[in-house]
Amino acid sequence: MKTFSMHPLARGIHMLLTSSTLLLPTFVWAEQQTEPPIQEEQKTNKEKEQQDIEIIQVSYGYASVEKKDLTGAIATVKLEDIADMPAGNIMQNLQGRVPGLQITTSGNPSSAATVRIRGQGLGPLGNNDPLYVIDGIPTKSGLHEINSNDIADVQVLRDAASSSIYGSRAGNGVIVVTTKKGQEGLDFNFRFNQTRESYNYDLQPLNTEQRGVAVWRAAVNDKTNPNTASPLYNFDWNGDYDNPQLNSVNLPAFTDPDNLQRPADTRWFDLVTREADVRDFNASLSGGDDNSRYYSSFGYYDSDGIVDGSSFERMAFRLNSEHELIKDRLKLGQTFLLTNQVGNLINDLAGQILSLSIEQQSIVPVFNDEGGWGGPVPGITDRDNPVRIIEQNRDNTHRFNKVMPGFFVEYSPLNDLKLKSSLSVDYSQFYFRNFTRSFKAGTLTFGDRLTVDDNWSRSIIASNTASYKVVLNDKHNFNLLAGIEQINFKSESARGIGSGFASNDRDFAFLSQATRDVRVEGDGDSWALDSQFARADYNYDDRYLASATVRRDGSSRFGENNKYGTFPAFSAGWVLSNEEFFNLDSISNLKLRLSWGETGNQEIPGNATATTYVPRYATQSLFTNQQDEGTAYDITGANGGTLPSGFVRAQTGNPDLKWETSTQSNIGLDIDLFSNTVYASFDWYQKETKDILTLTRPVATLGEGAQKWVNGGTIENNGFEMILGYQDWLSFDGWDDLKVDASFNLSKSRNKVTALPQDVINSFGGNGQDKTILGRSINSVYGYVAEGLFQNQTEVDEHATQAGAAPGRIRWADLDGNGVINENDQDFFATTDPDFLYGFNLTLNYNDWDLNMFWQGVKGGQIRNNWRLFTDFTSLNIGSNYGSRVLDAWTVQNSDSSVPALTLVDTNGEGRQSSFFWEEGSYLKLRNISVGYRPNLDLLDKFGIQEARIYLQAANLLTLTPDGTLSEDPETPNEVFPVPRRITLGLEMTF
Length: 991
Fold this sequence. Notes:
With 991 residues, the protein is mainly beta.
């Protein structure tokens, strides 16, 4: 047996992990036989790869299948292409890389991402999130809660045939994640990268003098005295409205009645943003022998956001192991994840902070003369001080813990027969003590308030499966699977609230110290699933493929008559390239795929079928300050004390609720050319979702608690997905063994609402009669159509009657042609659905160097630019700051401007929902470019290092947009955390 040396650090950790105190069986170490190193070194990279012929297994519903036998639309992710990116959330790193997978992200350090498979699906009508299955544990909570460094492979199940085995939770697709397992031998891997984030987001808010100029111009346009327009300014001008000339803008000594706040020139945006750092550390140890294998890791991810004060920290520990107790017969295994995540309230308030940094006037100082917070005064909109929000929320942190243990036993009483039982738990705990300090900022005065949230949820998943492989006459191959699964979910939330603390110090702010407004709240939910499923895969001579799946789910969320739903699926494949008549040498593989299937959705509260009542101790009427519409009543006339409370209906039950069902058909084609150097895959799909589970939005006349969950609506989705790729080793003069791997993907998705109940249809745009959302995309936008600006009085006179029309004002289209602009002149004018999504990836490997470049883009679709409310108008929020675009507003001498003429009174209703605020959402981004280097092995051997790599990576370096795009970034066009540029330097070593 061949011997080998072990790095001292790796040896120590190996001895610790193989002790019987940590793992069930004690590992028996056996050295792995390898080829002589000198023979391996003499091989070229190309020869090594050609010898490494592997059968690719794809995780596919409680088991795996060889990739060549797939008949469904399953996308396998190339994790090596994203290995250099910080491991906050693997879904963020996959943006644009998988056709049919639409991912929306932001710069929030908590790394959350919105994931949609095959389009926007149900939009605001229903649930759109996919199901995640992590080592067999189903969850809806996303992948930002686990350490991306632990992930071995990711499969995206896009069509119903591949995802229907997950039944009731697979209506929006399934993402299957498998974490790393141990291998024979011993490896200690260390990985660290440091990232610097920056952003040049700037809407150019006006400084104090510039805003004064804008106010003066607006007043002059209105033919009103500028010196009465605002108490903040006094203007020295010539007084000629026909030929106005401004000499100077004069500011008062103090802007507030108490003479505490002097005029300033605060650059709010600069004060609330910063360059930020991200630190990503991971250490893992894997090893084992013929009988037992293990993988353990510790990951630490620490991110500061570009909004000052934002932060996110995650520590994750994982331990996976497998133990073969009886060779080829009995196996035990477990997975275990423990995470601790800490974020703060600034992450959630970042959009508000950025909005305030644009909206708050620069004349407001950060602090007044007494050291208190600067804030709004007469003439300024009552908006908060964004710096105050940051400084008083840095310590308002929340903690999230997740524990995901899983255990399985696998027994093979016969060859090719496997019986497997597993038990898993998904437990989460969230704790947040949010202390809002009392403060005064200008005219704003708020008292203190403490809110303590303590929530937990847990799922217990038990499954039993039997799988059997049968081969007849060396041509008929059957893979049979049957199983049962039970899922039990429970959650509970508790909240305590109090005010009136003796100190503004958070360390003394606990509920027991509150002196007024003390109350507690609580809620909970529970549901259970009982499921049976079966699947049969058939392969005849590697030419004809077929698969059939059925799952029956019973859910406690539905009434007695509709508890169970059955979800079947069928698929077939024909490998034409394996037919005897097929003799095209240039085509290595050609496979046609067809599939049809049903999936479901049960994402409603556990009490959706019941009518619920809640106590409402006190509520403020919308109509009078004297009326209390709560259910508490001072029956004794004591005018104080604890009041007995009645109950009010909060929801109307619907015992007839039934399963939401999606039916999907898919046609696919896979082709490999020229000895698999060129490959392509095409998929077309059509999906209909009916009986959509949605919550109604009834009109007030129906009374309290009229809203209820209903099966309402049908939506059709269809689309197209493709990927083209090339991979090969190339040789040029002086360039040997250059590996090229290039791929391009494109996806297109459309949806249409075909049915809606009456109590839901009016929740969307339209007039409720001839113009409704029916027949349109669920993401359609309804409103007025802007036709540019009136250029002169003649255009005003010749246009339809429009209240507020004047030269320089927005011109509204007369859609109904009746000569009057009113509410009937509205229509659906845009949709947020992109025309298509695309991505291009290029990887080059030469000797010890590698280069990866990835571009991601969106074509079409409309985005609303909410910032134009500030950058283009002085009338829509008269007391706010404005953007520099108002300095180029329309005048007779500047008629080419797209910014309406400045005014202090919005007589033309220009803040209404209209096409004026909407623009094309297209963009192309250089998402990632990285360069890596692997030092010489001879040098590494001296330090006991098996492999090392150092890399430099940059993200979001370049964004290209169409001419006329006003948004700084179409991906994050409004009050959200902007996506920053990132420069990362990293090191990875294996001992």
